[in-house]
Amino acid sequence: MTQRRLVVCASHSPGMERDVERVQGASFREGLARTRGIVDAFDPDLVVLFGGDHRRAFTHVVPSFAVALSAGILPEGGHEEGSLDVPSEAARALADHLLDSGIDIAVCRDVALDHAFAQPLRDLVGSLDGRPVIPVAVNCATAPLPRASRVLALGDAVADFLDGRPEKILVIGTGGLSHSPPSLEIDAWDLDPEVRARLIAEGAAAARTKIRPEWDAAFLDALARWDRTRLAELTDGAHAAAGAGANEVRTWLAAGAAGGGVPLSALVYEPVEEWITGMAAAASI
Description:
285 residues, alpha/beta, Protocatechuate 4,5-dioxygenase, Chain B, 11 helices, 11 strands, EC 1.13.11.16, Xdiol_dOase_suB
């Protein structure tokens, strides 16, 4: 952790919120609480959040990278819809900087984001509007996906932008590790909600068997050494080796690079079958 920048990467899962009695994932929950303590101690002025999309915010047009100038959160998992406190001038300045740096990005306004953005804000910051946040969407779901080298270049350009900011900045990457949600295993962008729900229900049992702890360990090891070559190799091969949901580690690469490329230490790892995901959290401590 640099004095004015903290990087935190953490898995998300709708299953964690459905488990209202907190029966499952005890080790991960405890590690996530410790991670929240690190964030609280850092006390950021601004959050830059790299998140994916589960084919909800972006369907007909799917940018590889997008900066949101204003955004809300979809009602999901027992939560009502909400709004994010997006500092529009800073977000626009970031978008301009990325384009000037040779990173082709889209900008979006009033975009409705899902748990990929909502869950890390609730878990790590405390609420959707607890801190000003610039959402940066990385396509992790709908082929063709950006190559890891371009994701790292995006993060590097964001780091250059943040170097000129006076605030204490929390950079978050969210998603992964290994998992393969049934709704993402098929290349369909226009799933009816009822069809999506049926696919998830019918594929739940098989999805519980698709966590790959060995792949997760290799990724976390490369992250702890900030081995860009190995991280890129694992990310570009994530879908085949660790499932469709593992593509979300692109957000971890972007966040790590945006934090200046410092090693990210694993704070917790637990494969939670009920959540169909290898759950982890890591930080630049």
